[in-house]
Amino acid sequence: MKLVTKDDNFFFLLGSLLVLFFLSAVVHQFKDDAQSYVLALLVLCMSTSIVGVHRKQTFYRSWYAVMLVVIVTSGTITLFENKDLSLVTMSAMLCFVLAQTYSALKQVVMAKKVTLNQIVGSICVYLLFGLSFTFIYLIQLELFVDPFNGISHKPWLDNLFEVIYFSFITLTTVGYGDISPTLAIPKFFVFLESITGSFYLAIMVASLVSSHLAQKNE
């Protein structure tokens, strides 16, 4: 059996994302008023994803560490000091996820040959797109009054899984209709995510196939 090496860094990221999505669903379904659990889960999964970042990439590691400190500090103050720093926490998480998305996309696109790590990386990028839009929608829920039908105004940690669900059915263009945007700005980001999901799949699949054929011919 092939061992996971430092070159298989995307496995750490994929694992942390899948754990985050599944456990947030479990907490949402079985645990009421579990904001502290959800915040701890987010921090744990983000910390795990950093393990897969190459040690030579000191800039990315430092950036992720700073964002995690901001997330932990602002989130703790919001939960226990009765001061609402939700926008700070969500903005830091959005910056963290966008940095992960850029780094992963860069590695996938610039890879010289198709490997299992590259394929896993392309899956990670797709999941990171959905997670990025999740935090964009959560920020809009804080800024606007009733920007979405089907999502009531609650602390953002209580709404996290519902917004993750909405983000991914939008990214995949499934659109069940149980949650929908009501304002112009949320509608803009919804169709932007739909376009991103459709074009990413088409472009990435074509790129992987052409790279594999070229690699096979060589």
From TrEMBL:
Keyword Transmembrane helix (UniProt): yes
Name assigned to this protein: Potassium channel family protein
Gene3D superfamilies attached to this UniProt entry: 1.10.287.70
Superkingdom assignment: Bacteria
Transport among keywords: yes
GO BP terms: monoatomic ion transmembrane transport
Organism, scientific name: Vibrio qingdaonensis
The entry's keywords: Ion channel, Ion transport, Membrane, Transmembrane, Transmembrane helix, Transport
Pfam families (alphabetical): Ion_trans_2
Sequence intervals crossing the membrane: 12-30, 36-53, 62-80, 86-105, 117-139, 159-176, 188-209
Annotated Potassium channel domain residues: 126-209
